[in-house]
Amino acid sequence: MLKPISSRSSLAILRRSQISSIYKNGVTSASLHSTPAIQRESLGDFALTDRVAIVTGGNRGIGLEAALALSTAGSRTVYCLDLPEKPGEDWNAARQSVAKLGGAGRLEYVTIDVRDQKRLLKTVEEIATKEGRMDICVAAAGISGAARPCLEYTEEDLEEVYAVNLKGVFFSAQAAARQMDRFRMPGSIILLASIAGSVALKAILPYNTSKAAVIQMARVMACELAQKNIRVNSLSPGFVETPMTTAIFSAQPEFQTIWSEQSFMNRLGKPHELRGIMTWLASDASSFCTGSNIVVDGGYTAW
After folding, report:
1. CATH level 3 topology of 41-302
2. Mean pLDDT of successive 10-residue segments in the chain (303 residues)?
3. Which of its termini does the chain have fewer beta carbons within 10 Å around, N or C?
4. Mind telling me the catalytic residues?
5. Gap between the Cα atoms of 55 and 142, Å rounded
């Protein structure tokens, strides 16, 4: 049984011992991938040459933007995992765009429910076995759930959101991390959180609390997986124009104006504006970044 940490000084000692262990195991040097010189000349440490990634929620929205970002940076294969039996028009258009880039990079689509832990573990293992590696995971599958006063939520309302936004995110990260560890390769895991996990937003309590949990999940997993050369970070976008927010605006149009006006930039974000940070987090350019929550919100939370 773990003993409680009784003081700040004992916590500092624990942290120093963890850092010392990580240093002795050579994480700082071994965590860097080796990329061909031709890629380093063009993208430098941002290059993702020959790497293999999974992106949950990759059929549309931010998940699809993540897949495009990873492909553009040179990934060999990006597997987009999502619930629909067949990918949508946006995904098919993205696949054609990737094909036009040239090279061996490609997008693949896999139908799966991130709530099904056993099947997810098996599917990701099969992907890693086929490709001979697993480098990157973007856990972007999520739902907003019903919007109503906190006094009216039912157990079913909570479970619906937590099953995808909390359990599904963890199952995805866990499945990828197991394969990274199996192949003894450094890896990067990006968990999609939200500014809703750091500041309070009315009428969407399950969503808020699920995203707060994702931020803490990234910290805990980062702490445990650092010695395996696996980095884990969370990404908290502000209000971005996605199919999810479009559905919210259809039900409550006033939210679009309110959320836009509360940003320094007086607008919502575009999905493609997250490609740069996705590439950075996935690549060696962020090799010293783990356990962090990166906020990209147009200044919304800086007030």
Report:
1. Rossmann fold (3.40.50)
2. 41 41 38 38 86 97 96 96 97 94 87 98 98 98 93 97 98 98 97 96 92 98 98 96 81 82 90 96 98 96 89
3. N
4. 207
5. 12
